[in-house]
Amino acid sequence: MAELTDSTTTVAELKTRVLAFVRERDWEQFHSPKNLSMALAAEAGELMEHFLWASPEASKALVQDAVKRQKIASLPDGSGSTNRSRSDWSAPGRVKQPSHRPLKRH
What we know:
This protein is 45% helix and 0% strand. The protein has helices at residues 11-24, 33-49, 56-64, 66-73. It is flat and about 40 Å long.
C-alpha cells in the first residue's frame, strides 16, 4: 500500500482504507450510531485533555510547538505513524471485542 501524505491522499482513499481495516476485523457488527458516537466522543476527550485548563495563548503555543504537536498526533506506541498498528490491532482475531456482560451496580 502506498504511503499516505496530506497533499495527495483523498477522502475516498481514506474511506477505502478504513473500510478494509474494519472488514478485516469483522468490526462492522459493532458500528451502530450509538457505538460510533460514543467512540468518537472518547477520542475527542483524549485530544481535549491536552488543552484542559490552558489559556487561549497557551493552547495556541502548544500546537505551534512541533515537538508537542507530534506528541499529540502520535499513536499510543509513540510512533506517530499511521503505517504502524497498535499491538492489539496487529491481526484479526486478536482485538478485544465489546463485552456484553451487564454492568455491576454498586
